[in-house]
């Protein structure tokens, strides 16, 4: 690997997960794969439509009959991802399958794109309103109105304030203030696993690993099998240089979430990369990318980095270009832009050196 192609020299590898917003890492589907399958099906249907309906001669007729049938429009439509246009309170945070997808506008509207077939979990939270979660049935697509109810629950209100404070915290004083809000929430409602996990995240950022692990255990007491708690435990253990234990915690989170745990997949990918297991790292990052539906561009940078290590230069370029498309003004954009051209040259050299196909 040429030194000029190493993007990792331009930022701290140990803090790669820190680029993932804390607000997201509470935990849609493999939208990329579904979108790809629809695109392939549509292209195939277009090509087939140009062929004559009949062929002269029995041999030609047999060849036509042997071809796989093109899916009709209804079949293609049934597997295509569909969007949901949500109408609720203004400035409401929206999660789909525990992946933060965005915030409603001033009119309370938000479009969730690329919603695959099947059931999904929709969760919303607005300041001063009770949080609401519902299961979306396969038929629930298009326009969806979701009214919220105001709350006076002290624990819920303190938790909302703590979450907002943690997202905005830019220094340790602000993080300590967020921690106090979480403590107020759990004081009002001791069995509040989400608040305990939120507090664990803040304490991790304050380098209080022992306190953070204690909050993870408190979360598990009231919610056994809490995948997010295990994922946060993995982050704490990794931050304290216990990679083997961190990998075990991430694996536990993935089991508890039945495979859908992008934070844990990302953490495992970083550990694999640090250990030189680049193929395993690429697999982990690809899973996280698929599960996060392009909500976190930095994962494409992480994926491009391990492709560089594997000398898969075309794949690295594709990953970096995707990062730039999603985050043209991102923190890592200058470093990524500076390395892409060199990688293109190396990909061309690689192609020239490859033996001709038989």
- CATH architectural name of the domain at 81-145: Sandwich
Top CATH class of the domain at 81-145: Mainly Beta
Major sheet: arrangement of strands? 3-2-5-6
Shape: globular
Name of the CATH homologous superfamily of the domain at 81-145: Carboxypeptidase-like, regulatory domain
Overview of the structural elements:
The chain is α+β, with helices and mostly antiparallel strands. It has a domain at 81-145: Carboxypeptidase-like, regulatory domain (Immunoglobulin-like, Sandwich), CATH 2.60.40. Helix content is 55%, strand content 10%. The protein has 14 helices and seven strands. The chain has helices spanning 31-49, 58-66, 73-79, 154-168, 172-188, 193-205, 209-222, 227-239, 243-256, 262-274, 278-292, 298-309, 313-326, 333-353; strands at residues 82-87, 93-96, 99-103, 109-115, 120-125, 132-136, 142-145. The protein has a four-stranded antiparallel β-sheet, with no helix packed on it. The chain has a three-stranded mixed β-sheet with strand order 4-1-7, with no helix packed on it. Strand 5 (120-125) and strand 6 form a beta hairpin. It starts with 30 loop residues before the first helix and ends in a 5-residue tail after the last helix. The model is unreliable at 1-19 and 21-80 (pLDDT under 50).
